[in-house]
Amino acid sequence: MRQRTRFTVLTTATLASLLLSLLPSYGAIWAPDIRPPGPNVVGVNIVDSFFNTGENVSTLTAQGTPRINPDGTPNARLCKAIGTAPCDKPDQTFVANLLLGACKSPADQWCVENLSVRKKVESQTKLATFLRQVNGQTVINTPGDGLPGGSTMSLWRAEGLNNSGGVDTYAVYVVLKATKAPGRGPVFDEFTAMVLPYSEKSGFQYEQAATDEMVLPNGTIRVGSRGSSPECAWTEAGKCGLMEDFPVDTRASVTLRVSNQLTGWLMGRMADPIIDVQPIDAEQNKISIDAEPVKVPKFFATTDRTTASPAILASLPRNADFSGVTNGRANEQGAFATIANWKDIAKDTAAGVVSTWSATTISNGFGSPCLSDRSKLLGVVTTNAMVYEGTAPRFENSTLNYQVGGMHLNPDGTVFQGSYDLVMRKATAQCLYGFTDAPITAIVTVVDAGKEERIETSSLQELGTGADKWLKLSARGFTFSSPTLKIKLNQAKPAAPAPTQSTAPAGEQKAAAPAAPAVKAPAKISITCVKGKLTRKVLGLAPKCPAGFKRK
Q1: Enclosing H/E stretch for 427
Q2: Can you give the pLDDT at residue 255?
Q3: Closest by Cα among 518, 523, 524, 548 to 536
Q4: What angle do CA 195, 197, 198 make, to 5 degrees?
């Protein structure tokens, strides 16, 4: 069935890798200036995806037993194909990091069908023109192993939609992650899709990104990456796709052909997305994502390890003499500890702001099987927060809870204003609360331990028709450190129908009364309630503040 709604790593652990760059970054949008930091300097960089820190090429690795050695080094070999040495051992687990290329025919699977970039005031989508695939490392598609092949980033031209570099070129990065255990078929863990405006630059310092096997001093073989540059969406020998900003007031859309295992929940770095999911066959879906890009604050900081706090030292790689920069994903649980540990060094200020369009599958929610169905799209969570929970909202004590976090200030010293949108199937809400199909109301609460809190919430919206109904809730204007957003849904119990009495003579059927004219539903009213530093918005026909709160 068609699902449609509109609503306005090689490992799952934190990847730690040292990035070396010969020259300072000079990207058109902010990028971390990661150079050799010196023998005693350590740092941390939080990213949405590792696409420009080591995962921008397709790889297939075999991990033996144990997968991680006692000294913390990975135990892995780089594969050409499953069953070909050194990837032919019966106890090996295979981990795939596969980039999807552009579709070449209507029959192709596991590919990018199209890209569109347009002004958001335009309702008609104009497809971009495919230019080429980036030159780079690929993975052969071997029939019978259950995995697709791996390509490279695809490059496109959206005619007339010039980015901040003055050109109309865009890269599409779609990475699929899968694991294949001994004797089992592959499990497709997640995909990430990104649209990256770029302008092409030349320079001797750029090399083609790749992965290689490296032998460590203790004899362990590990797989590492080279050639990535933080300011580049992609690199080739002597070339860089320098990342640029999107044109103002635009929307981008991508259509993918991927496994139907990759549904459930999506996380978006975007605004007002339109999601469309259509089955292709018993195993594949066509997923279209259309949305506006957003500005996301980024975290990057360095310090001398001799003055670092015990918490920072404990989070570094295990080798005692480590110096360099570790990279962590914004949706890992450890990201909250990272920003807390480094907050003072960063002066509670974001390092930069990045123009972002991305969508990622995320883990299922906790607390209820209603949030765990992966057979269909259940919902989308979008936020501009620096870090966020990498799961669907948790259902606890009758509220849907979701934590976000970040620095209090933007790079220019202004206070950062957070945004959060939760859109989910109405049927999912009915499952959670036992609701009927009657209208639903909501209370959105932002609980923040910080000194300052400001919240504006939008009205609850019901979107779609028939069986394809969705709920959209929003929170706007709150500040960080690490607030938890709590959403409580409510539904009034329907009134019992009044009994009717018949006055018609026995055996005589009374004519049906004409239908009453439709009555327009009264408008809902929104009020603001306060209790100390807590603020709640209550929406209803005759809203009242909860106990302990006063109307503002």
Answers
A1: helix 426-433
A2: 96
A3: 548
A4: 130
What H or E segment, with its residue span, contains residue 428? Answer: helix 426-433
Which helix (H) or strand (E) element contains residue 340?
A: helix 334-342
Question: Which H or E run includes 469?
Answer: strand 468-478
Q: How confident is the model at residue 200, as a pLDDT?
A: 96
Omega cis (within 30) before 86: yes
At 135, the pLDDT band (50, 70, 90 cuts) reads very high
Sort strands 41-47 and 324-329 into parallel, antiparallel or unpaired. Answer: parallel
Distance CA 348, CA 345 (A): 8
Lowest model confidence (mean pLDDT) among 97-101, 301-305, 388-392: 388-392
Each residue's pLDDT tens digit, 443-485: 777 777 644 455 555 567 888 877 778 888 877 777 777 788 8
Residue 442 backbone phi and psi in degrees, to 5: -145, 150
H helices, E strands: number in the chain: 3, 35
User: What whole-number distance in Å separates Cα of residue 23 and Cα of residue 20?
Assistant: 9
What are the tokens at 432?
């959670």
Strand 271-279 and strand 3-6: the pairing is antiparallel
Given this model, what pLDDT does residue 15 score?
Answer: 30
Tens-place pLDDT, residues 496-513? 454 544 444 444 443 333
Domain boundaries, the chain: 3-487
Q: Environment class of residue 227 by beta-carbon count within 10 Å: exposed (0-12), middle (13-18) or buried (19+)?
A: buried
Q: Is the pTM of this model over 0.85?
A: no
Write the DSSP string, 28-66: SS---------TTEEEEEEES-STTTT-SS-EEEEEEEE
Q: Rounded to whole angstroms, how far apart are CA atoms 478 and 42?
A: 31
